[in-house]
Amino acid sequence: MMNRAGLVNLGTFFIKLALRLHLPVKKLIRSTIYEQFCGGETIRECESTIRQLSDSGIGTILDYSIEGEDEEAVFEETTAELLRTIDRAATSKDIPFTVFKVSGIAPNELLEKVQKKADLTPADTQAYARVVDRVERLCSQAHLRSVRIFFDGEESWIQEVIDDLAYTMMARYNSRQAIVFNTYQLYRHEVLEAYKTAYLRARENNYILGGKLVRGAYMEKERIRARENNYRNPIQATKADTDRDYDAAVDFSLEHIENIEFCLGTHNEDSCLHCACKMQKLGLKSGDPRVWFAQLLGMSDNLSYNLANLGYNVAKYVPYGPIDSVMPYLFRRAEENKSIAGQSSREFLLVKREMKRRGLGAM
Length: 363
Prior knowledge:
Layout: H1 5-20, H2 26-37, H3 43-55, E1 59-64, H4 72-90, E2 97-100, H5 108-115, H6 122-144, E3 148-151, H7 156-173, E4 180-185, H8 191-204, E5 209-214, H9 219-229, H10 239-255, E6 260-265, H11 269-281, E7 291-296, H12 301-309, E8 314-320, H13 323-337, H14 343-357
Parallel strand pairs: 1-2, 1-8, 2-3, 3-4, 4-5, 5-6, 6-7, 7-8
Helix pairs in contact: 1-13, 2-13, 4-6, 5-7, 10-11
GO molecular function: FAD binding; proline dehydrogenase activity
InterPro entries: FAD-linked_oxidoreductase-like, Proline_DH_dom, Proline_oxidase
Protein name: Proline dehydrogenase
C-alpha cells in the first residue's frame, strides 16, 4: 500500500481528520502502520520486540517518539520516561543505546530564538535553563548507568543549539568512552566539515567524539523554509553529493577510530558495504565495539539481519509511545516510503523474489 503515493496521501489526510474528530480509528492504526513501525505504547509492550531482535543478535534502541508538544508538564513527563529508558537499557546488553530529541523536551520556538541569539525575556531565560537541566539529567543518568545516548538530529534552524548542548555533554561525560553521541545529517552540504571540526575539538579537549551518521529526514521542510526565507538551501544539490559525503564521513571515522565511536544510521546497502570493506582493509574486526549499524524497526531487515549474522554490531530503532503522540513519526515514515524508488518498494521486491525462490508463488 505504501508504494501507492495517492493512497498514502489520502490515507494520511483521513487519519489526521479522524484523530482530530476523535473517531474510533486507533484499533485500525495499531493493527497496520503502528504495528509495522512501533514496538508498543510502553516499554513493557516493547519487551517482546526486544527479545525477538536479541534472538537474532540485534540490539534495540528504545525511542520514545513524542514530539511537537509545547507544555512544560509534558516536557517533564517526557524526561521522566526517557530516564526510564536509560534505566531499562542499563539492565541489559540487548539495548546498546538510548535516544532523545531535544525538541521533545523543549519548545521549538525557544530553541530557534536561542540559536538566532535573539533577545530572551526573563521567562525565556528560565525556560531555557529548564531545558539545559533536562538535558543534563538525561546525560548524567546515562553516564552513571554506563548507557550510550544519542542526541537525535533535527531541523537546521534549531540544530546549532542542539549541537552546542551535545558538545557540552560530550566534554563532560566522554573522557573514557563515548557516552554522548551527536547526530550528523550528511544531506546538508556543510556537515562533513562540521564533523571533522567536532573531531578536532574533541581531540583538543581530551574527550572521545560520539557520532551517529545519517543522511537526513527533513529535506522538504528545509527546502521550503530556505525558499520562503530567501537563504541558501542547506541540502546537498544531488543525492550523489550526499552519498559522497556520507561515505567520506565513514572513512574519516574509521581512520580516526582511536578517538571516535560511531553508528551508521542508514538503510543504504552501499554505505553498509563500504564501511564493512573499509573495516576489513584497516584490520578492524566486524564486531569492533566502536562501530555500529542501525536501522528502523519495520525497515531494511535484509540489512539488519545479514549484518548481524556476519558478526557486525547492529541495533534497531524501536519507537514507542501513545498512538496519538507517535503519529507525526508514523506520517514521516509513510512519506519516506511511498515513492516507487522508496524503501518499501525495494523490500517488497525482495520479499517477492525470495518467495519465488522458495517456490511459494507470486504476491
